[in-house]
Design goal:
The protein has helices spanning 25-32, 44-49, 66-71, 86-96, 112-125, and strands at residues 13-16, 36-40, 56-59, 76-78, 102-105, 131-134, 138-143, 147-150, 156-161, 168-171, 177-180, 191-192, 197-202, 208-213. The strands form two sheets. It has a ten-stranded mixed sheet with strand order 4-3-2-1-5-6-7-14-9-12, sandwiched between helices. It is an alpha/beta fold and 218 residues long. Strand 1 (13-16), helix 1 and strand 2 form a beta-alpha-beta unit. It has five helices and 14 strands. The protein folds into two domains: 13-136, Rossmann fold, CATH 3.40.50; 143-213, Jelly Rolls (Sandwich).
C-alpha cells in the first residue's frame, strides 16, 4: 500500500470479532493504538496469541476454556441473549459504556454469511456510533452525511447504498455519479479514486457503506 494513504486513527476502542484474525500490519495498527479492546468471547485465544490482552470479554462465554475463564475472570461481561450475535453484544456494551470511535476487526473470514451480516450490523449501529470495519484487504465506513475520505490515486473504491430514495453524487472518483439513486447494491461498486481524497455527497437522509482497498491495483 502506498505510504501516501494513511489509515485514520481516532479509533481508540477496538472490537475484535471471531472471524479471521487480522495479519495485515495496517489492520493490526488499530490494536497497537487501542486504549480499550472489547473482545468477543470466541476471539480471545486469537487475540492473546497475537500478543494483545482484552479489556473486556463479551458474549455468552461458551467459547472460553476453563483456563481462559479463570485468567480473564475480572474482565468477563456475560450476555446470554439469543437475539443478538456477539458483535452486536459488543456494540451494545460499547454504547452502555459511552465508548465511541470504534474499529471493528475480525469481522470477515471463516463464514461469508457472518461477514455480510456484520457489514449490515455496522451500518445499523452507525446511527449511534462512529464505526470503521478493517480487514486485511480494505476498510469499510458507514456514512450518514456527506463525507470526504482520504485516498490515493488508483485506490479501489466501492459504494453500497440500499436506499432507493437517496440520491448520491461522487466527487473525486474515476466514474462520476451525479444526483443518482441506486436500485441495486452493486451499482456503486468497482470505482477508483483519482486523487488524495474523494467525497460522497448525500442529497438526503440514509446510510451508505463505502469500501476502500488497502492495496492498490497494479
Amino acid at each position: 500500500m502506498s505510504e501516501g494513504f494513511k489509515v485514520e486513527m481516532p479509533y481508540k476502542t477496538v472490537i475484535v470479532a471471531n472471524g479471521t484474525f487480522p495479519s495485515c500490519s495496517r489492520a493490526l495498527d488499530f490494536l497497537r493504538h487501542a486504549g480499550h479492546i472489547i473482545c468477543c468471547d470466541g476471539a480471545v485465544s486469537k487475540l492473546t496469541a497475537a500478543g494483545f490482552s482484552p479489556s473486556v470479554v463479551v458474549g455468552d462465554l461458551d467459547s472460553l476454556s476453563p483456563d481462559e475463564r479463570q485468567r480473564w475472570s475480572d474482565r468477563l461481561h456475560p450476555d446470554y441473549s439469543t437475539e443478538y450475535n456477539d458483535l452486536q453484544k459488543a456494540l451494545k456494551y460499547a454504547i452502555a459504556q459511552q465508548l465511541d470511535h470504534i474499529a471493528l476487526l475480525g469481522c470477515a473470514g471463516l463464514r461469508d454469511d457472518h461477514f455480510i451480516a456484520n457489514i449490515s450490523i455496522m451500518a445499523t449501529y452507525s446511527q449511534w456510533l462512529d464505526l470503521v470495519m478493517v480487514t486485511d484487504y480494505g476498510i469499510f465506513n458507514a456514512l450518514r452525511q456527506t463525507t470526504t475520505l482520504p485516498s490515493v490515486p488508483g485506490q479501489q473504491v466501492s459504494v453500497f447504498a440500499k436506499d432507493e430514495q437517496l440520491p448520491l453524487t461522487f466527487h473525486g472518483l474515476k466514474y462520476p455519479v451525479n444526483n443518482r439513486c441506486f436500485h441495486h447494491l452493486w451499482e456503486g461498486s468497482l470505482n477508483e479514486a483519482t486523487g488524495n481524497t474523494f467525497t460522497i455527497e448525500m442529497h438526503g437522509k440514509g446510510v451508505v457503506v463505502v469500501y476502500r482497498s488497502l492495496e492498490l491495483r497494479v
